[in-house]
Amino acid sequence: MSDTTQSTRPIRSVGILTSGGDAPGMNAVIRAVVRAGTYHGFRMLGIRRGFHGLLRGEMEELHNRSVSETLQRGGTFLQTARSKEFQEIEGVRKGVEMARVFNLDALVIIGGDGSFRGARELAREGLPVIGIPGTIDNDIGCTDYTIGYDTAMNTAMEAIDKLRDTASSHERCSVIELMGRNAGYIALNVGIACGAEVVLIPEVPSDFDRDVVKTLLEARNRGKKHYIVIVAEGKGNAVEFAEKIQKMTGIEARPTILGHLQRGGSPTVRDRTMASFMGARAIECLAEGRLNRIIVYRTGRLDDVDIEVALEQTKTIDAYQVEYARILSL
Ligand code: F6P
Fold first, then answer.
1. Is 144 a catalytic residue?
2. Fewest beta carbons within 10 Å, which of 3, 28, 85, 308?
3. Per the confidence metrics, is the pTM higher than 0.90?
């Protein structure tokens, strides 16, 4: 494979798009990329509706004033989409062609794993890219942090604190389903922050009788009067879990699915600052001719990694955290 990590021609025009599920802080990334890009003398173009919009040439020039008042807003003002067409190589080639039509020399792509796979294909076809991790799930192997994660966790924590008030008043079990298709990072950390008696995540095998029924009944026998059970979306359905819990334990149980509430809202300080520094770093990479990189945050430092290497990396749930989530709720 040829070396795709060095610039072959100077970068003058940079496109930016958001892709996949939206996440709080995406607007803050766009703002940082546009303003850092303008500072470095790049012409900046915003692409609407992710790869879908790239294929249709839905783009417009963005200036410093175009991103005023966006820092504190949830969602993404560029909109986002999941493009089926882009999953085929013909779609990717059309994307590269469309970038040429608009004189784009490079793309900054904010999204999750799936979006980065699309970005890697663009890079392989000769269009330089920089990826910035943006997903509430925090499930991207190459980085410890993804934009939107902190806001989503705070939203979930605040909701569960409220559910605890009513569970405590009625001596009930509140069963809450949190987002995370294949990943339990939100569920585990919110579980620790809310002192949940049970946290069920896809990465950790569980047995309903032992890990739910027995845990809740033992908690009751130790004097607990209300209970919080958190289920990651990828592990099952809160309604079914609540029914089974009530049937097996005799404890009244109520389900709540937080769903897309976790994807909205004004980003937290952590998401705004991470978004700002990741956006700036993306532009620095382009200015220095370091192409086809993913911006990452690892062991407390911002860095950038070759996209081919980054997509090989995997992440695992910390067994120590799983253990202490249980111990601290006893
Ligand atoms: O990847 C982020 C995420 O919110 C997942 O946690 C969830 O499974 C998925 O997106 C839902 O996506 P949508 O409802 O937008 O199709």
1. no
2. 3
3. yes
